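Supplementary Data S3. Sequence and structure tokens for construct A.
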Amino acid sequence: MIETLFQAYTPLFIWIGLGLFFSRFTSDNLATLLGQSLYWVGVPLQLLVLARHTNSSIGGLIPGIGVGVVLLSLTLALLIWWLWQWFMSAKTKPEPESLDISDSSQKATLGSFILAAILGNTGFVGLTLTQVLTSPENTDWAVLFSVTNNVFGTYGIAVLIASYFGKRETENHWWIQLRDIATVPSLWTFFIGLNTQFVELPAVIESGLEQAVWVVIALALLLVGLRLGTIKEYKNLDIALIASVLKVVIVPLLVGLAATYFGIIGEQRLVLVLMSGTPTGLSVLILAEVYDLDRNLLSSSIALTFVGLFLALPFWLIWFG
């Protein structure tokens, strides 16, 4: 098992390490440009390819579970944020207005906390882990979960959250949020891919698209390294730690227990646990670039959830494998 885990995580260490290295010699503009490119081109291309190879005959079970995991994470994140603010208020006895999220920085922190807790790296890390640790016949479960997470979570509800909590200079109206969701390129490419499964492309093009997905993964991991390398001090580390524990421990544990209760066992249960407990998604950095969120908190959450995954993965394999 150690050998297979080593093979699965080697690309993560290589590309994130390169990002950390290059962050010492490049400007912040490179990370911004890379984040924008992934948002408008890279991730939509990945979703297009995944949608074309998804077995939709599984039905609505996996999409339903994927939506349920996002909503569960969102509910827990809001509850834990409220409890944390109540605890800090009781501890320091601040002025009442200090908990007012009308302040743009406070709103950005809350929005970043929610995104860090609900968005998992299902497309990059999740699919890699399930391909290494489970049988090929369960790949469709992982792919459909990842697509649901991307469509409903990352570029559905997450865009709504990022648009609302982002540091905007103009007043944020409801129609602006709906416009942001409607103009997300990944939603369009997903539906295009889903409805063009019957179209047979030349082998050269199909092979090129599959290779392009791995290029997107490498660039996304590189972006993580670039952003981690720009952190001068770990502000909001306590909040990031709370979000990380929720993301890689509490939510997958609840998913595993619920799956057992409803009779889903074996590798299929492990797929659900792995996909729901992946580290905070790289897409939060892309959303941070687009909507000006708390990059420090999100980068810290990504780093902590990667460490948390290494610690939690053996337990998931023993308990839910």
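Construct B, processed identically:
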Amino acid sequence: MPDFAEFGSREKEGWANGGIVDAYIRHFVPITDHVGNYIAGNHIFAQDKALDLCCGQGTLTASMLDKGANVSGLDFSPEMLEKARSAAPDAEIVEGDAMAMPFDDAVFDKVVCNFGMMHIPDQPKTLSEIRRVLKPSGEFIMATWGGPATSPAFAAVFGALKAHADFSAAPSQPDLFAFAGREYAEATMAAANLDLAKHETITSEWVLEKPTELFDIFLTATVGAGMLIRSQTDEVIVKIAASIAETVSTKFRNGPKFHVPVTVAVISAKAC
């Protein structure tokens, strides 16, 4: 397995930055909450003992509580955990590592990871931990971004990055879109004794006031993509920003605003 240790260190540093956390909540959470509500509505039931893994700001934690579940939230970011405790005061909110969870074996009916897997350096190890803490026949549900082939938003951003950026200038990181592929998700989960049950795609969108906003979102409200952008020369950063803005301007204008579609893979698996 590739060494993503430096990426993991940068992730922890980045999500301790209040500015990045606030920008993420402002720009990404309208989409991640849309997906989280879908997961809660279709997979979480009263009396479930559920883990919100990589719980972030805690809005999904709160949604699962509203469904009548008994919920724990786990995250490595103290900045996020402070917000989670405010959003879901009746949940058990724990600071910890998804690759070494501070929970006993076979304690959860459901484990949910809503856009968290891409922030973890060792994803197979995390899947093994998920299987460990799930009860027999328990369910794991995760959401991840669709790749550029299906997601116009990520096609605009990563098309510009591939055209102009030097990817070797930033630490190696896991494939952001790996689990959006059904075959990869099924095989990787099977290795952790998780049996893929469903792999579906749902859609959302960013509604932008200006075509330059999509670049700004990825620069200011992410750690991985933002790290890659900031590792480039000033000249290259200008080219990346201009390329993304041109794509948004020409393809996604809808009246006075710009509607940029984004796809999400929602995946569920049963503990074998």
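The chain has eleven helices and eight strands. The beta strands are 49-53, 70-75, 92-95, 108-114, 134-145, 194-208, 253-254, 257-271.
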